[in-house]
Write a sequence for this structure.
């Protein structure tokens, strides 16, 4: 039986519906609506979680409709996103969901930086640590390790340091502001203009809009950064040769710390319970933990080259997934189906084949590391003692297992959709809500 999409257009229960019922697992994007209810905050209610969802089987008539309206706040309910004062928003972490507050925090840091620059230009600006990458490597050290850099004039390098923590903190705030601003004031108005009337579908569409914005940008930036590395397009023996890779080009350090900021912001969202749980909630938690583990350890032990490789493998497929799901919520079923077909190929190549190839490199090419650096000497940038092979291999193996789990789920959705049987692959009761709305109107 045909269903009706958010814009009131009839659609067949085919691959497009199966695609909409595929959990949004890889991007970790948080809806601006679900992320409005903070712990201990009794002002307004966010969009209901699955446990609160009304419109279940057996609910009938006006009572069901009234209960549904009571347990579910409107997506236009601005009071849930209103500021309670900047200090209060900072203490309660409400700034993560109130774009005006996160913008004020970021603006305050920028103002302090400008003030220092204007009135005390001769002294180092401490607020630069928040806005820009820091810990530049002296020219003499760059030329000692890379003599060829003098010929090309490419002599700017950075190393890690404690100032990176300030950079991470600032851009966690920036990403919170960017997420809420774009979803509330760009993607949500577009969804309404397009004619998506169902609130849950509006919520899902804005998630995919932000996911496409972030993953598309991160994927392109990652390819740009990777193009400067000897490991370009997965020449993975260079992940180990010339170790340690402790001197980073400015674009590499910027890319790595921005990725870390994004994932830390997403982790805070999960820890504060700002995201409505999905059917693969625990797999998503595992994905976040493994990702943060990989980012932190690879940065600490000077393996940013392998980190960039993993980022590219993850981000490019996520971009296509967001596009496919976004067009699906717009009711453009043909385009969504074509993109999903492309996604299956891209996912297979990047998240399965290249991820497995990276695991192979960890296991079999680890011994390419120069013999004199195979000791635990952090002061020299040497961390890769023999047992580190297992420490690197383990999280990458877990990540590959999660990719295979989601890969199997996508094939299941495709096969069942082609058979016309996707009725039980529901995402957080989305279609239950829609069907109940029709019954009670």
């Amino acid at each position: 039986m045909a269903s009706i999409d958010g814009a009131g257009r009839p659609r067949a229960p085919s691959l497009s519906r199966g695609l909409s019922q595929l959990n949004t697992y890889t991007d970790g994007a948080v809806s601006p609506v679900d992320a409005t209810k903070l712990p201990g905050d009794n002002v307004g209610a966010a969009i209901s979680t699955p446990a609160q969802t009304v419109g279940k089987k057996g609910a009938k008539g006006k009572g069901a409709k009234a209960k549904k309206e009571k347990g579910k706040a409107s997506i236009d309910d601005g009071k849930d996103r209103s500021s309670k004062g900047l200090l209060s928003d900072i203490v309660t972490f409400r700034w993560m969901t109130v774009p005006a507050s996160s913008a004020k925090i970021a603006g305050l840091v920028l103002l302090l930086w400008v003030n220092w620059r204007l009135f005390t230009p001769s002294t180092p600006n401490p607020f630069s640590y928040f806005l820009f990458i820091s810990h530049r490597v002296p020219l003499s050290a760059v030329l000692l390790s890379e003599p060829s850099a003098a010929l090309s004039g490419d002599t700017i390098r950075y190393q890690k340091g404690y100032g990176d923590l300030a950079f991470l903190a600032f851009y966690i705030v920036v990403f919170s502001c960017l997420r809420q601003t774009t979803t509330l004031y760009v993607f949500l108005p577009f969804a309404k203009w397009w004619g998506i009337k169902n609130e849950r579908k509006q919520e899902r569409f804005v998630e995919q809009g932000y996911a496409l914005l972030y993953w598309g940008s991160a994927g392109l930036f990652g390819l740009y950064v990777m193009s400067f590395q000897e490991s370009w397009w997965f020449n993975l023996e260079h992940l180990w040769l010339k170790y340690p890779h402790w001197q980073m080009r400015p674009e590499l350090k910027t890319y790595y710390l921005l990725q870390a900021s994004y994932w830390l912001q997403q982790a805070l969202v999960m820890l504060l319970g700002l995201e409505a749980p999905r059917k693969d909630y625990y797999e998503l938690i595992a994905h976040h933990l493994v990702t943060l583990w990989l980012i932190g350890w690879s940065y600490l032990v000077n393996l940013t080259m392998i980190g960039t490789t993993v980022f590219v493998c993850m981000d490019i497929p996520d971009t296509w997934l967001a596009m496919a799901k976004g067009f699906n919520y717009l009711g453009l079923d043909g385009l969504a189906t074509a993109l999903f077909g492309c996604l299956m190929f891209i996912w297979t190549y990047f998240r399965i084949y290249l991820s497995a190839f990276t695991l192979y490199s960890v296991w079999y090419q680890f011994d390419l590391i120069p013999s004199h650096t195979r000791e635990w000497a952090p002061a020299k940038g040497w961390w890769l003692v023999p047992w580190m092979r297992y420490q690197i291999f383990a999280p990458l193996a877990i990540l590959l297992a999660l990719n295979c789990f989601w890969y199997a789920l996508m094939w299941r959705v495709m096969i069942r959709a082609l058979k016309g049987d996707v009725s039980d692959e529901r995402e957080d009761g989305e279609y239950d809500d829609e069907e109940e709305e029709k019954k009670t109107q």
